[in-house]
Amino acid sequence: MSAVDSGAADRTDQRRAARPARDGRVRETGRSRGIDIGAFADFEDRKMRSVEVGGMELGVCRWGDEIFVFRTACPHEGAPLCAGFLQKKLSATLVDEEPRLEVDEESPVVLCPWHRWEFDLRTGEAAWPGFKMRTYRVTVEDGRVLVSMGRK
Ligand code: FES
Protein backbone atom coordinates (compact mmCIF):
# COMPACT_ATOMS: atom_id res chain seq x y z
CA MET A 1 0.00 0.00 0.00
CA SER A 2 1.40 3.42 -0.90
CA ALA A 3 1.73 6.33 1.51
CA VAL A 4 -1.23 8.03 -0.21
CA ASP A 5 -3.45 4.97 0.28
CA SER A 6 -2.41 4.69 3.92
CA GLY A 7 -3.36 8.32 4.55
CA ALA A 8 -6.76 7.80 2.94
CA ALA A 9 -7.39 4.81 5.21
CA ASP A 10 -6.35 6.84 8.27
CA ARG A 11 -8.75 9.66 7.35
CA THR A 12 -11.59 7.16 6.93
CA ASP A 13 -10.86 5.70 10.39
CA GLN A 14 -10.79 9.19 11.92
CA ARG A 15 -14.17 10.06 10.36
CA ARG A 16 -15.68 6.86 11.79
CA ALA A 17 -14.17 7.41 15.23
CA ALA A 18 -15.30 11.04 15.28
CA ARG A 19 -18.90 10.29 14.28
CA PRO A 20 -21.09 11.64 17.10
CA ALA A 21 -23.35 9.20 18.93
CA ARG A 22 -26.86 9.94 20.16
CA ASP A 23 -26.01 9.20 23.76
CA GLY A 24 -22.33 10.10 23.44
CA ARG A 25 -21.24 6.59 24.42
CA VAL A 26 -20.96 4.82 21.08
CA ARG A 27 -17.46 3.64 20.54
CA GLU A 28 -15.95 2.21 17.40
CA THR A 29 -12.88 0.02 17.54
CA GLY A 30 -11.64 -1.86 14.50
CA ARG A 31 -14.49 -3.61 12.70
CA SER A 32 -17.01 -3.75 15.48
CA ARG A 33 -19.21 -1.02 16.77
CA GLY A 34 -21.50 -0.80 19.68
CA ILE A 35 -22.61 1.02 22.74
CA ASP A 36 -20.08 0.93 25.55
CA ILE A 37 -21.87 -0.27 28.70
CA GLY A 38 -18.82 -0.55 30.93
CA ALA A 39 -15.68 -2.46 31.74
CA PHE A 40 -15.94 -6.26 31.55
CA ALA A 41 -14.13 -6.51 34.91
CA ASP A 42 -16.85 -4.44 36.57
CA PHE A 43 -19.50 -7.10 35.86
CA GLU A 44 -19.43 -9.64 38.66
CA ASP A 45 -19.24 -13.28 37.56
CA ARG A 46 -22.55 -15.18 37.63
CA LYS A 47 -24.55 -12.12 38.57
CA MET A 48 -27.16 -10.08 36.72
CA ARG A 49 -27.67 -6.37 36.82
CA SER A 50 -29.40 -3.82 34.67
CA VAL A 51 -27.96 -0.91 32.73
CA GLU A 52 -29.80 1.88 30.96
CA VAL A 53 -29.01 2.41 27.30
CA GLY A 54 -30.79 5.16 25.39
CA GLY A 55 -33.72 5.14 27.83
CA MET A 56 -34.12 1.36 27.64
CA GLU A 57 -33.29 -0.99 30.51
CA LEU A 58 -31.08 -3.90 29.51
CA GLY A 59 -30.06 -6.87 31.60
CA VAL A 60 -26.40 -7.89 31.70
CA CYS A 61 -25.10 -11.21 32.91
CA ARG A 62 -21.48 -12.30 33.06
CA TRP A 63 -20.93 -16.05 32.98
CA GLY A 64 -17.23 -16.81 33.31
CA ASP A 65 -15.48 -15.41 30.25
CA GLU A 66 -18.76 -14.67 28.49
CA ILE A 67 -21.22 -11.85 28.84
CA PHE A 68 -24.87 -11.70 27.78
CA VAL A 69 -27.15 -8.71 27.23
CA PHE A 70 -30.93 -8.91 27.04
CA ARG A 71 -34.03 -6.78 27.37
CA THR A 72 -34.92 -7.02 31.02
CA ALA A 73 -38.70 -6.85 30.55
CA CYS A 74 -40.04 -10.41 30.47
CA PRO A 75 -41.85 -11.21 27.20
CA HIS A 76 -44.69 -12.83 29.17
CA GLU A 77 -46.06 -9.98 31.30
CA GLY A 78 -43.14 -7.59 31.65
CA ALA A 79 -41.53 -8.58 34.94
CA PRO A 80 -37.97 -7.30 35.48
CA LEU A 81 -35.89 -10.37 34.62
CA CYS A 82 -32.84 -8.95 36.43
CA ALA A 83 -34.82 -9.33 39.68
CA GLY A 84 -35.17 -13.03 38.89
CA PHE A 85 -32.81 -15.90 39.37
CA LEU A 86 -29.75 -16.98 37.46
CA GLN A 87 -28.79 -20.63 37.30
CA LYS A 88 -27.28 -23.42 35.23
CA LYS A 89 -29.62 -25.08 32.77
CA LEU A 90 -31.24 -28.19 34.22
CA SER A 91 -33.01 -30.90 32.30
CA ALA A 92 -34.70 -34.08 33.38
CA THR A 93 -35.06 -37.27 31.40
CA LEU A 94 -36.25 -40.76 32.08
CA VAL A 95 -33.59 -43.46 31.68
CA ASP A 96 -34.84 -47.00 32.17
CA GLU A 97 -37.90 -45.47 33.81
CA GLU A 98 -35.71 -43.70 36.34
CA PRO A 99 -35.56 -39.90 36.41
CA ARG A 100 -32.17 -38.42 35.63
CA LEU A 101 -31.33 -34.78 36.26
CA GLU A 102 -28.64 -33.24 34.06
CA VAL A 103 -26.86 -29.95 34.70
CA ASP A 104 -25.45 -27.99 31.76
CA GLU A 105 -22.65 -25.87 33.26
CA GLU A 106 -22.18 -23.96 29.99
CA SER A 107 -25.75 -22.76 29.58
CA PRO A 108 -26.98 -20.03 31.90
CA VAL A 109 -30.72 -19.48 32.23
CA VAL A 110 -32.78 -16.76 33.86
CA LEU A 111 -35.89 -17.56 35.87
CA CYS A 112 -38.49 -14.81 35.79
CA PRO A 113 -39.34 -13.52 39.30
CA TRP A 114 -43.09 -13.49 38.69
CA HIS A 115 -44.04 -16.86 37.16
CA ARG A 116 -40.66 -18.64 37.08
CA TRP A 117 -40.55 -19.08 33.34
CA GLU A 118 -37.04 -20.00 32.24
CA PHE A 119 -35.11 -18.24 29.46
CA ASP A 120 -31.88 -19.47 27.87
CA LEU A 121 -29.38 -16.60 27.81
CA ARG A 122 -27.65 -17.91 24.67
CA THR A 123 -30.77 -18.09 22.53
CA GLY A 124 -33.42 -16.12 24.42
CA GLU A 125 -35.73 -19.12 24.05
CA ALA A 126 -38.18 -19.82 26.83
CA ALA A 127 -38.70 -23.32 28.13
CA TRP A 128 -42.38 -22.54 27.39
CA PRO A 129 -42.77 -22.68 23.59
CA GLY A 130 -43.69 -19.55 21.68
CA PHE A 131 -41.95 -17.01 23.90
CA LYS A 132 -38.49 -15.59 23.49
CA MET A 133 -36.69 -12.83 25.33
CA ARG A 134 -34.84 -10.26 23.28
CA THR A 135 -31.06 -10.72 23.27
CA TYR A 136 -28.37 -8.50 21.79
CA ARG A 137 -25.03 -9.08 20.12
CA VAL A 138 -22.22 -8.21 22.50
CA THR A 139 -18.45 -8.03 22.10
CA VAL A 140 -15.59 -7.23 24.44
CA GLU A 141 -12.85 -5.04 23.07
CA ASP A 142 -9.97 -3.60 25.04
CA GLY A 143 -11.75 -4.72 28.19
CA ARG A 144 -14.93 -2.77 27.35
CA VAL A 145 -18.35 -4.35 26.77
CA LEU A 146 -19.96 -3.18 23.52
CA VAL A 147 -23.59 -3.88 22.67
CA SER A 148 -25.13 -3.77 19.19
CA MET A 149 -28.77 -2.81 19.37
CA GLY A 150 -29.74 -4.69 16.19
CA ARG A 151 -31.24 -8.16 16.34
CA LYS A 152 -28.84 -10.93 17.28
S1 FES B 1 -43.92 -12.14 33.70
FE1 FES B 1 -42.22 -13.42 33.36
S2 FES B 1 -43.01 -15.40 33.33
FE2 FES B 1 -44.70 -14.15 33.66
From TrEMBL:
PROSITE patterns: RIESKE. PANTHER family: FERREDOXIN-RELATED, RIESKE DOMAIN-CONTAINING PROTEIN. It comes from the Bacteria. Its cofactor is [2Fe-2S] cluster. SUPFAM superfamilies: ISP domain (SSF50022). Residues 8-30 have a biased composition (Basic and acidic residues). It holds the Pfam family Rieske. Residues 1-30 are annotated as: Disordered. It comes from Microbacterium album. Residues 35-147 form the Rieske domain. Belongs to the bacterial ring-hydroxylating dioxygenase ferredoxin component family. This is Rieske domain-containing protein. Keywords: 2Fe-2S, Iron, Iron-sulfur, Metal-binding. One of its GO terms (molecular function) is 2 iron, 2 sulfur cluster binding. InterPro entries: Rieske_2Fe-2S (IPR017941), Rieske_2Fe-2S_sf (IPR036922). Coiled coil: none annotated.
